[in-house]
TrEMBL record:
<protein>
    <submittedName>
        <fullName>Zinc-dependent alcohol dehydrogenase</fullName>
    </submittedName>
</protein>
<dbReference type="InterPro" id="IPR011032">
    <property type="entry name" value="GroES-like_sf"/>
</dbReference>
<keyword id="KW-0560">Oxidoreductase</keyword>
<dbReference type="InterPro" id="IPR036291">
    <property type="entry name" value="NAD(P)-bd_dom_sf"/>
</dbReference>
<feature type="domain" description="Enoyl reductase (ER)">
    <location>
        <begin position="15"/>
        <end position="325"/>
    </location>
</feature>
<dbReference type="InterPro" id="IPR002364">
    <property type="entry name" value="Quin_OxRdtase/zeta-crystal_CS"/>
</dbReference>
<dbReference type="InterPro" id="IPR020843">
    <property type="entry name" value="ER"/>
</dbReference>
<keyword id="KW-0521">NADP</keyword>
<dbReference type="InterPro" id="IPR047618">
    <property type="entry name" value="QOR-like"/>
</dbReference>
<dbReference type="InterPro" id="IPR013149">
    <property type="entry name" value="ADH-like_C"/>
</dbReference>
<dbReference type="InterPro" id="IPR013154">
    <property type="entry name" value="ADH-like_N"/>
</dbReference>
<dbReference type="Pfam" id="PF00107">
    <property type="entry name" value="ADH_zinc_N"/>
</dbReference>
<dbReference type="Pfam" id="PF08240">
    <property type="entry name" value="ADH_N"/>
</dbReference>
Length: 327
């Protein structure tokens, strides 16, 4: 292993996609409680663009972005007893993903079932754990409820449509194009609204004036007010993304004016910080995959060295489904 080089993507300064630099570094050595992972596929997520642009802060620079991947354990460090070389594993929520090889704490890994490929795991682990968090923990969706899902053709959105329908919810999707609307319907959305013009009025018509118990908003700044207006009294606004920019300057009084609403900004890392919670969430996710409830779509594949191009595609909103990098 010591003679091999490790192709990575590093950021020396934050900015546009061009700050993602291809570099060759030594293959790292796992420390106590860590494993060395040879990655076979790496997930590309909007949160990666937030760190790259400087919206979210790296602890220090240079840094390797990326929060999700899957591969084969090459070596284990001291004090690792439940994982062995050759095992196929995945992770989500641990920075340092844009690399051929990486070290990672063993307690952050989940072992893949035989019928889940590394590509599928890289496409679904972060998004699937997020969907589980949103539908089963942040707001436990019940049969017969109507829910609103933005970016319903995106990586998380497709899973929310599929899982939401399985739970017996009526899913209203929001997409930017008719083509994406067709994709959202294929994933289980009962209705799809193209564009966000007059969104509260359209939701009012679809719900016969009842409005919604929960809205899942991954867009951020551009849709925040409209989302609040789609909620029934005491409804929950779940703001979990910033695709149009962060929501800032919120007057909490507006929650009262809209009907005593609740607002949350959940982070997956909080919900899987405990190892037992991570394993339980992953077990629920893999169960949905094995039952065929979740059918993750890999819409885009890029070589690891093409990470900048992958970010451009993601930020242009021209992608559908999940995007992965292949080392």
């Amino acid at each position: 292993m010591s003679d091999e080089t490790n192709t990575v993507i590093r950021v020396h300064e934050t900015g546009g996609p061009d700050v993602l630099k291809v570099e060759n570094l030594p293959v790292p050595t796992p420390g106590a409680g860590e494993v060395l992972l040879r990655q076979e596929a790496i997930g590309v997520n909007f949160i990666d663009t937030y760190f790259r642009s400087g919206l979210y802060k790296f602890p220090s620079l240079p840094a390797i972005p990326g929060m999700e991947g899957a591969g084969v354990i090459e070596a284990v460090g001291p004090d690792v007893t439940d994982l062995k070389p050759g095992m196929r594993v995945a992770y989500a929520g641990v920075r340092g993903g844009y690399a051929q090889y990486r070290t990672i704490a063993a307690d952050r890994l989940v072992v893949l079932p035989e019928n889940v490929s590394c590509e599928t795991a890289a496409a679904v682990t972060l998004r699937g754990l997020s969907a589980h968090m949103l539908l089963r923990q942040v707001y436990p969706v019940r049969k017969g409820e109507t829910i609103l899902v933005y970016a319903a053709a995106g990586g998380v959105g497709q899973l929310l449509c599929q899982w939401g329908k399985h739970l017996g919810a009526r899913v209203i999707g929001v997409t930017s194009t008719q083509e994406k609307a067709d994709l959202a319907r294929a994933c289980g959305a009962a209705e799809v609204l193209v564009g966000t013009d007059n969104l509260p009025q359209r939701v009012r018509e679809l719900t016969d004036g009842a409005m919604l118990p929960v809205v899942y908003d991954s867009i951020g700044r551009d849709t925040f007010e409209a989302s609040l207006s789609c909620l029934a009294p005491r409804g929950l606004m779940v703001s979990y993304g910033n695709a149009s920019g962060p929501v800032t300057g919120v007057d909490v009084g507006t929650l009262g004016a809209h009907g005593s609403l609740y607002l949350t900004r959940p982070s997956l890392m909080t919900y899987i910080a405990d190892k037992s919670e991570l394993q339980a969430s992953a077990a629920a996710l893999f169960s949905m995959l094995e039952q065929g409830v979740l059918r993750p779509s890999i819409g885009q594949r890029f070589a690891l060295a093409e990470a900048a191009e992958a970010h451009r595609a993601l930020e242009s909103r021209k992608t559908a489904g999940s995007t992965i990098l292949l080392p």
